[in-house]
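Researcher: Good morning. I'm working through a list of sequences from a screen, and I'd like to move beyond sequence-only analysis. For each chain I'm collecting a predicted structure so we can compare shapes side by side. This is the next one on the list. No need for commentary yet; just the structure.
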Amino acid sequence: MRSNRDVPRRMSLTLLLQLASRNLWRHRRRNSLLLVSIAFAVVGLVFASSFIRAFQGGMQVDVIAALNGHIKVLAAGYQDDPSLNHSFALDDTWRPNVPASQVMGWAARISLPGVVMSERETRGIELVGVDPQAELSISFLGESEIEGEGLEGPEDGKLLIGAALAQRLQTGVGRRVVVITEGADGVSREIGYRITGLYRAKQPSVERIIAFTGIKNLQSHLDTTAYTEVSMRLNADEFEAGAKTSFKSDSAFTDVNVFDWRELNPEIAQMVELADFAFYIWFAILWIALSFGLVNALLTSVFERIREIGMLRTLGMRPASVLVQIVLESQIVVFYGLVLGILVGAGLVYLFQDGIDLAGFSQGLDTFGMRSVIVPQLLAADIIRLVVLSFALGLVASLYPAWRALRLRPLVALQG
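Model: Good morning. Structure tokens for this chain:
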């Protein structure tokens, strides 16, 4: 049952809301300009945050898909000397001790530096022996366009190279190349390959350096049954810690190091983390500028209503009610500005849902691990953060005008 004391309190709040709305409507032009300014700022924040998330998500996905996975196992010393001297044995029946519901996929590989020679050019590459079926769900091969044919299986003795590498080598599908790399005995091996296909990845950098062949075929050429890495991609970042612990405690591995993608790519990891701060930086810049306008408008409103405020105080309006009324005026303008800005901003994000092509800047973007086609991503968490911070700053901006209103003495205000 409602308390009798609740009714006046609710009526009082309703009355204060009506008074605040009336005061805003009284100065429609000024407050409309303020509302539009807030809406423009919100549109900019929504669109900017969607770009920030697109860059952030794209960088993380690309670095994980670039043969890193969320978790990667490397033999001790491999990072300093990437050769079969730093490899490990792995039984064909081995499976990772990680819940299947957490795993998108995993793959064991051989990855070695080498040199590829075509009829016209010679280039340094990273020769990677793979099971192509295992790679489809965890690496960039799964989303790359392939001209010609892909690898058929782990025993496939053909070569799949990037379109950018083929251009540098002045070669193409069906042509023969020679790859020189180091075998298990430390002696260089020359392996002849026919190019089965050219892949086109979303990151040109991998196209220029990575060449794939069947892992079983490569092991036979190098006289080894060992692997240089195991990579696992997870369904969510939250599973990383558990998967990393599982690999470290797995008795199948001896003398190995277990890394997550951040440890393997600290520069990209830092850029991904800095993207979170970019949202707050944009918010601070825009709202600091808007706060001056909001404070100015509220102060002007207070000074224009000195006699009215004095009369209300004389009739018994409490100082707290004056404070609430000024704050409500601020929050009403912020509310409508947020609604309008979020709707327009979300509409712009939807308009560019197919992505924005920045191919003209692809070389610069690739340096930072970014894609040339950016698809804005609007996250609910960013919208909630924007709403909460906007109302909080609207409240802070209204405190000074409210304080000035509270300092007015009723009798002096009536005389003014």
